[in-house]
């Protein structure tokens, strides 16, 4: 199932900072007690899908964090123009992965980055990627760059002497790109892409092209799309039902819309955005929802998760608790450190099967109740 996804503009530094924070939902460790069994079973049932998603692309890794460069040179188009990735002098490609889920995509293609920007706070224990992807590093110990929100340690990156820097789901900042390009060829998001708004399939193909693995990227995208399509076909009752992907952070509430991978996955499963959400002013891939507008969450079903709260605190929020979609048991609540929630936010070829297997059955139980 392939649905067109609009590229949404997001203006201003404040908007970019907000985008990074809102993307960080489900990273960290709040409260997984209510759904840890769900994440465990989903991870288990997704193992075959995740394995299949990279079986055709797993032969390029050479160990030591470098990858064979047989498919290079390559040229890719980005928002900052064409970027050329030459054949490394030693024949092995050293990759630094800075963009959201860039490292997981590289791993799915059999390439082990020497450094990973840890957007979701998985930590050195998991080598900066989701636990579903950690083992793909093998014995390689990448440098894990902590998420500082608004800055990069350029000196630390330069010391790694990369041949390629992946920054394909990022803020798309010109100054950052200029500085990174002084270190190595840097692949940024495609043209006309919102901050952190690169769709997972576009991102996967862009990373594959940059690695000289274009055919493997096409195969990988097709396999993940098949996983989503199979879930949608198995649940025709999703079609035409309204849904909301919502969160609470600080004293604010909001819903994700087209351009955010979490909503895009629900749309690909067949759900339609709740009209009251679309009636509110959007900020990129996100719609702020005031206390007075909280009933915009009252769709046929909702998937909700906290940012900076425990799940218990979110469920106890009087406004959340007052919603018909909550009182009627039509909400899937995801705790921040539940593996399904983390996979939902990561939106990589390795995590999407876990998110589908974890969320689709819960939504099916609601819709068919």
TrEMBL record:
Q: What is this protein called?
A: Iron-siderophore ABC transporter substrate-binding protein
Alphabetic keyword roster? Signal, Transport
Q: Name one GO cellular component term.
A: outer membrane-bounded periplasmic space
Q: List where in the cell it is found.
A: Cell envelope
**Domain of life the protein comes from:** Bacteria
The Fe/B12 periplasmic-binding domain sits at 94-367
Q: Where is the composition biased (Low complexity)?
A: 27-60
Family, according to the entry, reads as follows: Belongs to the bacterial solute-binding protein 8 family.
Which segment of the chain is annotated as a signal peptide?
1-19
Please report the organism this UniProt entry assigns to the protein.
Nakamurella leprariae
Annotated region (Disordered), positions in chain: 27-68
